[in-house]
Amino acid sequence: MSGLPQLKTLNNGVQIPELGLGLWQTPESKTANIVYEALKVGYRHFDSAQWYANEKGAAKGIIRWLKEDPKNHKRKDVFFTTKVKDPSHGYENTKQSIKESLEQVKGIGYIDLVLVHSPQSNKNLRLGTWKALQELVNEGVVKSIGVSNYGVPHIQEILKWDEMTIKPVINQVEINPWLTRKEIVNFCHKNGIEVEAYSPLTRGKRLNDPALMKIAKKYGKQPAQILIKWSIQKGFIVLPKTTHEERLLSNIDVFDFTISDEDITQMTYDDEYQVFCSWDPTTYRG
C-alpha cells in the first residue's frame, strides 16, 4: 500500500482523516472485529450513529487496538463519530441520548464528532439539539459537532441563530458522481464547513457503469477505488463502508494515483440527481 489518508483541518482546528470507514448496517456482532482489522491496515476514522446500534462494538474494536500496543497506538490518533437520531432532537433529549452514547463508548473516553443525523423534526427541536451539543463541547466530552443530511436552509438556521457559539464543522451527505449536490457543497465550503460523502460507492449500483469501468481500467484500479478517489479529489471526506475484511485494504489503497482533471470531468454528472439510499432528508421542510 502506497500511503495513508491525509488529515484535513476542521474550522475549529481539529484534524480528521480524509477517509474513514462507514459503519452503517454493520451488525454489532461484527463491528468490533471489522474496526480492529481496519485499524491494523491503516484506518483511523470510524463513522457510527445511535441508529446503527453499533457504537459499543466500534469502541470495543478501538480499545482492543489501543491495548495491543499502548506505546504506539494512541487514542488521539483515532477519530470516532456518532450521530443523534431524529427522535432524540431537542435539548433534554439530546443531552440524554449523548449521555447514553458516552456510556456505550466509555472505554475510549470521549467522542471526536457528534452529528445531528438528519433535520427531520422542527426548527425549535433542531436548535435545542444544537444548544445541547454546544454545551457538550464546552464540557469536553465531545470534541466537535456538525450535521448530516442538512440542506442549505437547515444549515442557515444554525448560522443565523443568535445563540450559536459553535459553527458546524461538517455536513455529511450522500454524494457520488451522479449526485454531486453542488448547491449544498458550495454553500458549505463558502462557510468553512467540510463535506463528508457517504455511500460514495453508490451502494454498488453503479460499479458496472461502462464509463467508470473504462476509467478504472485506464488507471489499473477497481471501480470502487476510482469512486473513492473521485470524492477525495473533489475535496470531500469520504466514508466507504464494507463488512468484508478483504475489501478494507483495497478501499484505502487509493493514494498511489491521481485521476486527471479530464477524467474527473468525464465521470462527473452534475445534471443528474440519483439518490441511491432510501432517503434524502436534505429536501425535508419542517
From TrEMBL:
The keyword Protein transport does not apply. Keywords: Oxidoreductase. Substrate binds at residue 117. The active site is at 52 (proton donor). The keyword Acetylation does not apply. InterPro entries: AKR, Aldo/ket_reductase_CS, NAD(P)_OxRdtase_dom_sf, NADP_OxRdtase_dom. Belongs to the aldo/keto reductase family. This is Similar to Saccharomyces cerevisiae YJR096W Putative xylose and arabinose reductase. It comes from Maudiozyma barnettii.
